Automatic annotation (TrEMBL):
Name of the protein this chain belongs to: Ribosomal RNA small subunit methyltransferase A
Database matches in Pfam families: RrnaAD
SUPFAM superfamilies associated with the record: S-adenosyl-L-methionine-dependent methyltransferases
Function in brief: Specifically dimethylates two adjacent adenosines (A1518 and A1519) in the loop of a conserved hairpin near the 3'-end of 16S rRNA in the 30S particle. May play a critical role in biogenesis of 30S subunits.
Encoding gene per record: rsmA
The UniProt record lists the keyword Lipoprotein: no
Taxonomic source organism: Agromyces humatus
Coiled-coil ranges from the UniProt annotation: none
Keyword Methyltransferase: yes
Enzyme Commission no: 2.1.1.182
Gene3D superfamilies from the UniProt entry: Ribosomal RNA adenine dimethylase-like, domain 2, Vaccinia Virus protein VP39
Predominant subcellular localization, coarse grouping: cytoplasm
Broad class of enzyme this protein falls into: transferase
Length: 279
């Protein structure tokens, strides 16, 4: 019988067939463990018949898991060889399922052949946060998701104000909804084995708290605050709030934020209030 998911033997055979040497630059670490794939699909709560967006399907490990669960999958892959092979792999291993492959850079894609409601992906490590933010801006149909990212990045996305790892990604992510750690994944389920372990991060979208213009202004303030995270806000934000520490102090006062505080203490709503006070 033809297996329905990719194990170590299938991963090896496919890589050999395509003459693929996984590259670090594209974060190519392929999952060769069917149990991990089924756990991700289950954690994501994928429902039969729904449209799921996958970024970086690679050799198809997770794609096949999503199709097995009855999802219709839109998969965006930057590597041409992988994008071209995927429909063949799916036709052999899971005929009769619905897959659309888009050969493109997930950081640039602005149109998809469908309206995905859920994101499920094992993201390329070096671009995981920019990819997530890009997708959340451009695809409002995405209501929730589960992504696998390197552990440090995942904990940062889900961090609360005041914690050591709370940073720009944590605040920006919070603009779009709630984030949580949904599980750990050992590095041993990947080929090649990466240097770090991974986590599953879940998000549920909430209504955005402001307009798109306010988001852009807020994100610029967040970036400035965390570029100099050890400095007090009246100094760190002087460049983006009027050009001097005095000007920044008066904006912060209008927003009800102590000018001596630091970015790591503020919530996303605090940053939005600063952006509104600066107008
Ligand atoms: N989903 C597969 C799995 O779980 O085995 C592969 C995951 S691998 C960590 C990341 C995948 O993302 C690779 O297939 C890589 O080619 C692809 N990728 C890297 N950068 C990308 C980008 N900017 N846009 C789309 N795909 C990208």
């Amino acid at each position: 019988v033809t297996p329905r998911l990719l194990g170590p033997a299938e991963i090896r055979d496919l890589a050999q067939l395509l003459d693929v040497t996984p590259t670090k630059k594209l974060g190519q670490n392929f999952v060769h463990d069917a149990n991990t794939v089924r756990r991700i699909v289950q954690t994501a709560g994928v429902e039969r018949g729904e449209t799921v967006l996958e970024i970086g399907p690679g050799l198809g490990s997770l794609t096949l898991g999503l199709l097995e669960a009855g999802a219709s999958v839109i998969a965006v892959e930057i590597d041409r060889r992988l994008a071209e092979q995927l429909p063949h792999t799916v036709r052999i291993m899971q005929p009769g399922t619905e897959l659309h492959v888009v050969h493109d850079d997930a950081l640039r894609v602005t149109e998809l052949p469908g309206e995905p409601v859920r994101l499920v992906a094992n993201l390329p490590y070096n671009v995981s946060v920019p990819v997530l933010l890009h997708l959340l801006v451009h695809f409002p149909s995405l209501r929730s998701g589960i992504v696998m990212v390197q552990a440090e990045v995942g904990h940062r996305l889900a961090a609360e104000p005041g914690s050591k790892i709370y940073g720009a990604p944590s605040v920006k992510a919070a603009w779009y909804g709630r984030w949580r750690i949904a599980g750990q994944v050992s590095r041993m389920v990947f080929w090649p084995v990466p240097n770090v372990d991974s986590v599953l991060v879940g998000f549920e979208r909430a209504d955005v708290p402001g307009t798109e213009a306010e988001r852009i202004a807020t994100f610029a303030i967040i970036d400035a605050a965390f570029q100099q995270r050890r400095k007090m806000l009246r100094q760190a934000l002087s460049g983006v709030l009027g050009g001097s520490s005095a000007a920044a102090t008066s904006v912060l006062a209008r927003a009800g934020i102590a000018p001596e505080s630091r970015g790591e203490q503020l919530t996303m709503d605090d940053f939005l209030r600063i952006a509104r006070a600066a107008r």
